[in-house]
Amino acid sequence: MRFRSTFEQRENRTLAEANVEQQRAAHYAFLGSLMPELIGRLSWSRAQIEAHRTTAFRDLLRHVRAHSPWHARRAAHLDPSTATLADIVRLPSMNKSDLMENWDEIVTIPGASRREAEEALRKMTDQFYIWGDNVLFASGGTGGRPGLFLYDWSALAMTWGGMNRGFVKSLAPLAGRGIEVPQQVRTASIGAEMSAHGSYVVGRIFSNPLNPTHRLSAWRSADELIPQLNAIQPHFLFCYPSLILALAAAAKAGELKIEPRVVYVGAERLPDASRQLARRTWPQADILTCWGTSEGGGTFPCPCGDGFHVSEDLVIIEPVDSAGAAVAPGQRSSGIYFTNLVNKALPIIRYFIDDIFEMDDGPCVCGSSYQKVRQVHGRTVEIFHYGEISVRPTILELAVLEQLHILEYQIRQTPRGAHLAYRSQGEIDAARLSAKMRQALLSYGLQEPEITIEKIALLERTAVGKLKHFVPLPP
Ligand SMILES: [Zn+2]
């Protein structure tokens, strides 16, 4: 009997795995069916974008009033048949704690609960569908506590497609070399290891079953990654900006020999010096970046390679100051309110994210009518506070980035200055480096700042393989 039951269990598991494979393949095919529409929207005029957003906003209001008790109470004073986008400011904002504490009243899938979701996540290995065709994943704990996100089938594909449509123009020249786009595009992604994190889950679902993405772990050292990349010869390379320095050094040393058409650096802020370095290293490639969030993607790369655009057909991003008032283009915000117009499973409306946005107000050279983001300047939570003085650590980073032999670094706030931990290959000019960092703090008015510098062998990455570049002291 014992043998038989073990055998049956294995049979069942194999069947479940096969079902997930099929579900993923169907999801990938569904994404393919959406792409012509999503790409077509890139040429929309401002009027078309606005009309679509108004309809989508009204649909969202109607949906939450019928299916999400928590949102329904908060949106009770808006009439879904007449509301306009300007009315969004009449809705209260929410944050990650609100989402997690009211999850069961926010979610709109019948029978879904946070308790069951958390239990499922603990047991999930390589399986992310739950309650039918919905997809569950966790976000990192960078905002204090981890978030738990649920997407419906269509919204997940829209979100992924909405970001990926920004690569179409850059990949198009491959067709001239006889490479079918996207079917034959070789993609290497250096990111999260297998996990319940969105970046892994979504990337895995939308990997072409006939031409899977080569998934490399950001936890591995460059010595391990380089032979793999040389073997793959990716047309499309994704990596975190914190890996650019090490990969560029390997390319310069003649160890890394790849000729990607697109180098897409995302998931962390991309310093301009790293972007320039990537351009010099792979002159034949488009170096693209964009910003995304577990709450609903959000942007697509500008094909001109400088900045990115808000996917205004899918989301609403409102840059706000610390009091929640709107911040004009050209000014730095304290954060944003994020609204997901497409995900009906777990509606996200005016959700606060503390990324510092700077919008562009002029039309973009690429011709797009979608709102351009000039830069996301890190997170408010990363700012170093010394009494009354607040220092953006990106100013300290400038001194680090001009040292070409530094491969990875972390700048930690100390009570009277900053500590730099770095990994390097070759000599660095420590005197110049600390003098420039000290100068940067002096320019903010900090008296007699103390800078310490330490070379180390390994910098810890987060659970998904990201590197925390700035570590403020706890308040
Ligand atoms: Zn553009």
Describe the model.
The chain has 475 residues and is of the alpha/beta class. Among the domains are: 43-185 and 290-379, ANL, N-terminal domain (Rossmann fold, 3-Layer(aba) Sandwich), CATH 3.40.50.12780; 383-471, ANL, C-terminal domain (GMP Synthetase, Chain A, domain 3, 2-Layer Sandwich). Helix content is 34%, strand content 21%. It has a 5-stranded parallel sheet, with helices on one face. It has a 5-stranded antiparallel sheet with strand order 9-10-11-16-15, covered by helices on one side. A 4-stranded mixed sheet has the order 21-20-19-22. The longest helix has 39 residues, at 2-40. The radius of gyration is 23 Å and the shape is globular. The relative contact order is 0.11. The structure holds zinc ion. Residues 302, 304, 309, 364, 366, 368, 372 line the site of zinc ion.
Describe the structure concisely.
The protein has 475 residues and is an alpha/beta fold. The chain has helices at 2-40, 46-67, 69-74, 96-101, 103-106, 114-123, 153-164, 168-171, 198-205, 222-232, 244-252, 272-281, 394-401, 430-443, and strands at residues 129-130, 134-138, 148-151, 187-191, 214-217, 236-239, 262-265, 286-288, 292-293, 297-301, 308-310, 315-320, 335-340, 351-353, 355-360, 372-379, 384-386, 389-391, 406-414, 417-424, 450-455, 470-471.
Beta strand %: 15-25%
Count all strands and give the number. Answer: 22
- Could you name the CATH topology of one domain? Rossmann fold
Spatial strand arrangement across the major sheet: 5-4-6-7-8
Helical proportion, percent range? 25-40%
What is the CATH homology-level superfamily of one domain?
ANL, N-terminal domain
Summed over residues and divided by their number, the pLDDT gives a mean of: 88
**What is the terminal-to-terminal distance?**
61 Å
- Quick one: CATH class of one domain? Alpha Beta
